[in-house]
Amino acid sequence: MAKDPTRSAPEERLVNLVVALMATEQGLTKDTILTSVSGYREQSEAGAKKDALEKMFERDKENLRALGVPIETIGDYADPDDLREARYRVPTAEYELPADIDFTPAELAVLNLAGGVWSESSMSADARGGLRKIRALGNEVDAPIIGYSPRINLREPAFTPLQRAIEQGRVAEFEYLKGGDDTAHTRRIQPLALLEYEGRWHVYGFDLIQDAERTFLLSRIVSDVRPTRETFDLALRDGAGDKALRGLQDVAARQRALVEVAPGTEAALRLHRRAIPADQGIHVPYVDVHIFADELASYGPEVRVVEPAQLRDEVIARLERTLAVHGGAA
Amino acid sequence: MSAKPLLATDRAALILQLVPYLIGKGEVSVAEAADAFEVTPEQMREMVEKLTVIGLPGDGGFWQMANDLFDIDWDLLDEQGIISITNSVGLERTPRLTAREAAALLAGLQLAASLPGVGDSGVVQGLLAKLARGASAAPADVIVAPDAVDDVRVRVAEALRHGVAVSFTYHAPDHEPTTRTVDPVKVHIAGGQWYLQGWCHLREAMRTFHLERVSDVRLTDIPIAHGSDAVPDLFEPSETDAVAEVRYRATIATLLADFLDRATVTGDGEFRDARLRVADERSLKRLAARHGGDVEILAPESARRAAAAWAEAGLAQYR
Fold first, then answer.
1. Which end of chain A, N or C, is surrounded by fewer C-beta atoms within 10 Å?
2. Is B226 a residue whose pLDDT tops 50?
3. Is residue B213 a part of any domain in this protein?
4. Which of B96, B251, B314 sits opposite A68 (nearest CB)?
5. How many domains is chain B built from?
6. Which ranges of A46-104 would DSSP assign to H, the alpha helix?
7. What ipTM was estimated for this complex?
């Protein structure tokens, strides 16, 4: 391979840096790194500008941290602005999977199933990467769990940027089309958790414009998600997922529609499973009036909404629009 | 197999995982390692070759000594395509999971926990704790809401476990209910919906059953005869299916994703046209009404008329 001897592939430099930072107890200064770690050293010797090399080192550090490599800075505390004498290291205990973590054969079989749920979404590569690390521990695995093919659908492009914003504790903005509205409005939130509920993805967070906790449907985010420079306290995330889940469950427990269904139909079959019998008709819990109206409209004449009025109106509006685009009444 | 180009950081992440993998294996073929890392054999060979120029920093300005670098058995690689590390200078232990890797597995576990026989085994609780402890940073909460396990799901799981056929009443929309006896092969869970795929004794073929349309399940004592037959994809259409044409508002494409996966889509304006095979054209009226005005059935004409009549009959109840 003919190539410039001073320029090695960036991944070589990154891994060299990890090896060097793990091999040191007391840490290496930036100068030592730039003049001794392969990948920087060759460029230093070839007379590369120190500025450029330092920038490269900063970038490498950020990239490695994003990979989960815990690079520790042992600073010069006398002058916090002066990082020249700062030393860097990777503490082995924080880099390596704790030695006492082992997986039983049964656990590995369940993990293999769990890692396969993501189909082709962005989470799939992460799940497989995690599995690969765990398999490298070399534990025995039980026979695969057959007979099940669990899948989580994840098609919303908003998911990945929101997940990153949660990890970094960053305020995010997006345009949100509320159910039933014609125009989208800007939302500015501290995103705290992502939640799949009844097959739909939601983001739960603190809405800085409404000044309240809110849950948003990812499918109604109509713009790119824009992370901002504004950060928030990561402790806000503690227990956020459970809170979000309880929130939706509370809504479902509170909101009940009274509907009448024609016996022996698809509507009867599907709705009776979640229904509570009423004197006349059935009570069905729901979370979002628009999503439930979509479902009820699909049943056409198989279901009649008694109350609430808003749900009834939404169903009627869907049926009227359906009739109109298909040429009106026969 | 992923053929997409990897970024330098991705390649670095793979090398960090590769060392403990290779050390754990002792000797492993390029093909097997490539498979495990989802790269091509050429990419794997290149990664391994790169590894041999990686090592500890040179001391006091000297070049690195041979034993400061990773090394492999070159003869073994060249002659037999087998990778074996002969000198390692660190990275022997598996790195921690990244926050995102942990989040992806934790969420998958929540779904796995809803399967009869998995969630109640106590395995999941232990795993949740281990994954949380094995992550390099706190993962973002990604919650998959648990779904109530009903009697139908439990019975089907039992039939799978015991290798016997199940019998049940199946009520497909717009059809009369039928009694089916089915050799269960696989339970698919997608978007919170459960489907059973199996050999239907009545139709003498593989069929897919939506479990919400199943009732009166009981286990038979008929051993499974078609348990190892190939199952088709969940929504795979057959040649006998009718061809439908549907116009939809482009903004609702994500909501129709399962449906559009099988479709040929044309147009690029506010509305798009999709053409696909559907198992039962009678289901189209339900799709149209669900998306009230954002979905228009263009063909077949009978389905278009049915959609109008469906909406009309629904509205008549409110007059």
1. N
2. yes
3. yes
4. B96
5. 4
6. 50-66, 92-95
7. 0.88
